[in-house]
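Regression report. Comparing outputs from two consecutive submissions.

Submission 1:
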Amino acid sequence: MYEYDEEVLDTFLENQSQLFPENVADTPEAAEEFLEDCMAVVCKNIKDVRDYFDEAGADISGMSDDELIEQSEVFSLPSGRFLIVEG
């Protein structure tokens, strides 16, 4: 089980509408449970985000880092890390 820190949970709660039409969580506890259920991943930098999508078989070869960051399943965290939530 992955432990999601406060920054991850708060960012997801504030920005979950970028991926889902309705809120899927309304408390940090619900957000943590949801992220665990979908096996969300926290990446330390954009290279890790790119590696994650490459390993998942996504065709991102022509995408710039900015285009990758703009994907709805990628949440930018204030610390510079990224949360990837596959809806």
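Submission 2:
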Amino acid sequence: MEKYLPNIFFALILIAGIGYFVMNVRKLIRNIKLGKDVDRTNNQPERWKNMAKIALGQYKMVRRPLSGILHIIVYVGFILINIELLEIVIDGVFGTHRVFQPLLGNGLYGFLIGSFEILAALVLVAVTIFWLRRNIHRVKRFWNKEMLGWPKNDGNIILYFEMVLMTLFLVMNATDANFQQAGAGNVISQIIAPWFNEYSPETLHTIEKTAWWLHIVGILIFLNYLYYSKHLHILLAFPNTFFANLKPKGQFNNLEAVTNEVKMMMDPEADPYAMPEEGAEDEEPAKFGASDVMDLNWVQLMNAYTCTECGRCTSSCPANLTGKELSPRAIMMKTRDRLEEVGKNIDANKGEFKPDGKQLLDDYITREELWACTTCNACVQECPVSIDPLSIIMEMRRYLVMEESAAPQELNMMMTNIENNGAPWQYSQMDRLNWKDE
């Protein structure tokens, strides 16, 4: 029985790690479903193409070549190296050692592990450069005010995680005497192996097993850390790009109730119950626009969780570049923070949300931020995972205008002129052609 204790202990750790991850995923889905329903299942070929090109193919990342190529190395390396987890899990549960080596033979097995080792070394180089860019070179977009405190630490913690996990993988291979003697796949670890020549075979075996245990436990910790980190985009980038808005940028959704009212104003004989245009709301909403996260749709809430906090949106935002308060990245981060707060409220109140006297508008996102936006869509264009901060801004503006009549004076004047004169200008329709007489 005693010899099976490590396998039992491994199984318990594996079950606990995966179980906690599943619990957080269920909570994540629950929080996203707090949003309003929206149909994003049309044009599936285009959606699959976007997911393959943007999420899997990293199409938008390489627009900035240095960070894009480094990100691809980390992305591909981390995904492929973790294929070895299958072997680690089998070894851990059944007490075997490199179970695939005899099955695949030294040729194929050596090619796979050798490829993983090269990728591990490249990942180490890439994350080191990322750390230097973030902390020494201090790339400006990583030092905006919303990136202080936890967001700043989170970015570094992820890099440390990757450094440690890749190092443990290489040390595990370098101290495996049988693996080194086989000479198949030890492309990088053979360079490290001489560092351990002074140790006895027993000590070498202890180092190998310690690295093995730390590697698998570290991966399980990393897996569960994702929920609390910006690196949740590793999982959500795929559905986020699939369910992204396929309409032309700048085309906003219409409220059918408002559209019908306008039709009746323009033509009293118009049928207010005519077929609504595609994407329009079918009935009058309980609230116009959004003042809290529950007023947004579920895709917008998924956007908030998917945000990578890379800052490409903010670094391209003309409002932000001219010193205004708006940061599209901060809009997504604040939406996620409020959504998390709502989720914790639901957890604390046995599945029901208890009003807490707070909302997304004013308590998280200021009106100054909302009205600073020029609706240019630069943030939407730049996002590497198809997040749409502008849609949230516009829904909150809609609330301010239609529920609170709280638009800036310039907009109120323009809307009054449109209502009275049929144009944004402050003169009657009869005077429109006066300019030709001047």
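Expected: both submissions complete independently.
Actual: both completed, but the second showed a warning that disappeared on reload.
Relevant detail on submission 2: The chain is about 60% helix and 0% strand.
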